[in-house]
Amino acid sequence: MTSSTSRTSAPETSPPPTSPATPRRTSRHTGDLANSAFAWTATSAGVLILLVLAAVALFLVLRAWPALTANAQELSEAVSWLPDGENLLEFVGPLVFGTLLAAALALVIAVPLSVGIALFISHYAPRRLANGLGYLIDLLAAIPSVVYGLWGALWLVPLLFPVWRWLSDTLGFIPLFAGPASDPPRVILTVAIVLAVMILPIITAVCREVFLQAPRLHEEAALAMGATRWEMVRLAVLPFGRPGIISAAMLGLGRALGETMAVLMILSPGATYSFALLLAGKHQTIAANIALQFPEANTEGVSVLIATGLALFVITLVVNMAARAIVARRKDFSGAN
């Protein structure tokens, strides 16, 4: 009898019926909408800035056009505070000179101090002291300019008179310090010190943040090779932060160029091309002159003042473009290089 062995195989189980695949298009669609909305918002903001800038420039040109095209004699007769026979260019020139001189002196004073303070906060001071000092520096930026003007006119001007008199007596052979020093010293050098104090927190804050972003590996490598703390800062931190220092200086320069109340309350105005920093009645800035003459200006006078504002607008635009060009030339250096 032959026995047949029957193989029992496991019953085949068919896969459960699956419902048709439904791709999750809802979240993807929402993400696409969010990206499109963000791109549209960013583009609109950029275009809006350009439109506002163009509108300001167009307004200045249109309102200044009567003064730009008028005869010098007509302007002198229509505007009481405009010198007789002096055309608009001869009137604006000394104001541009005084504006640039005050801003340049303020930068010369403020930039080294700001860089030193930023380096102390970022690389030398203990953390607790650095946080407190950084907070105090930032508070200086919140003080209104009229407060700086009162401080400069009522406290700083009498304090600086002995110093300016000593400079005039000792270094009077140098044209910059030609004297005798004015009493009270409502001169361009006093204005420059006040402007330097005003722009110092802006430059310091930007430089501090740039120095804190310096590559840590570069700093540690310099210290490992035996460099002192100052050599490490000079070789690793300052080259990395040079574009930031330039940008910070240009931000401070923008505020110094347009400052009004502090200059108006301190400076004894004049309209000359003079490098005598200790003589009163030699300089005036565009913004301070606009604030001084605008309340009593007639239609022609307002046009003249707007023309000077157009000159300040062009100066600010040129300065910012030059700063961008300088920073672009320096941007090749980075922490990854």
UniProtKB/TrEMBL annotation:
Region (Disordered): 1-29
Cellular component annotations (GO), alphabetically ordered: plasma membrane
A GO term, aspect molecular function: phosphate transmembrane transporter activity
Major location category of this protein: membrane
Domain ABC transmembrane type-1 as annotated: residue spans: 96-323
Compartment annotation: Cell membrane
InterPro entries according to UniProt: MetI-like (IPR000515), MetI-like_sf (IPR035906), Phosphate_PstC (IPR011864), Phosphate_Transport_Permease (IPR051124)
CDD domains (UniProt xref): TM_PBP2
Keyword Cell cycle found: no
A biological process from GO: phosphate ion transport
Topology class, membrane: Multi-pass membrane protein
Biased composition range(s): Low complexity: 1-12
UniProt keyword list: Cell membrane, Membrane, Phosphate transport, Transmembrane, Transmembrane helix, Transport
The name this protein goes by in its record: Phosphate transport system permease protein
Species this protein is from: Cellulomonas fimi
Gene designation per UniProt: pstC
